[in-house]
Backbone:
């Protein structure tokens, strides 16, 4: 996964990120390790040149922020 | 006897899972904080290009959009009770060469409309978002 996230090919990186973030079961929590990988991806890909790729990235970030882990964390963080 | 043991096992499993959830919540809070800090850091970099600034502004907007996320303590610190330096970064974006970035920065500042400077910018009508 790490190699795919740091691959030279932009499409491969995006697909790896999508694989990391997306899951058919939205309630499945993202582990601490996965969060670290997401951070790594964001740091290395924040200057993405292609607008379509940027949109795809944001779609996945939205998924992380809005849907995943929500039920688990809200009772502790609020 | 067996039933009591089962109950105790279940109780300890529940405590363990709650501990795990709490740890995860902390990690997730840390992640939210990272997103906020990273977005502002990206905006503040003098070498940031259009793509980076656009991504940063979109990320800030995304973090602010979600009403549930607004309630998170970490984001209240990073976004809603925005400090002077971060506010200045957003205000500086109003002078961005790209209109899209200007309008995004203005939208964000309008949402944080408790600032005195913001009222000045909006009332002056100089930086209206492009249609």
Residues:
């Amino acid at each position: 996964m790490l190699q795919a996230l740091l691959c030279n090919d932009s499409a491969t990186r995006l697909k790896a990120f999508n694989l990391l973030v997306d899951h058919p079961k939205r309630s499945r929590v993202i582990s601490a390790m996965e969060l670290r990988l997401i951070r790594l991806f964001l740091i290395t890909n924040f200057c993405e040149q292609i607008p379509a790729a940027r949109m795809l990235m944001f779609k996945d970030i939205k998924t992380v922020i809005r849907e995943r882990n929500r039920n688990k964390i809200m009772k502790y963080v609020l | 006897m067996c039933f009591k043991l089962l109950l105790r096992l279940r109780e300890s499993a529940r405590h363990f899972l709650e501990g795990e959830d709490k740890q995860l919540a902390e990690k997730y809070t840390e992640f939210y904080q990272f997103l906020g800090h990273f977005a502002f850091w990206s905006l503040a970099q003098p070498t940031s290009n259009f793509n980076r600034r656009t991504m940063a502004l979109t990320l800030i907007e995304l973090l602010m959009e979600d009403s549930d996320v607004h309630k998170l303590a970490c984001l209240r610190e990073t976004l809603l009770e925005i400090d002077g330096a971060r506010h200045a970064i957003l205000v500086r974006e109003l002078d961005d060469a790209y209109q899209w970035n200007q309008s995004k920065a203005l939208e964000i500042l309008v949402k944080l409309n408790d600032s005195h400077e913001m009222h000045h910018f909006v009332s002056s009508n100089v930086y209206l978002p492009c249609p």
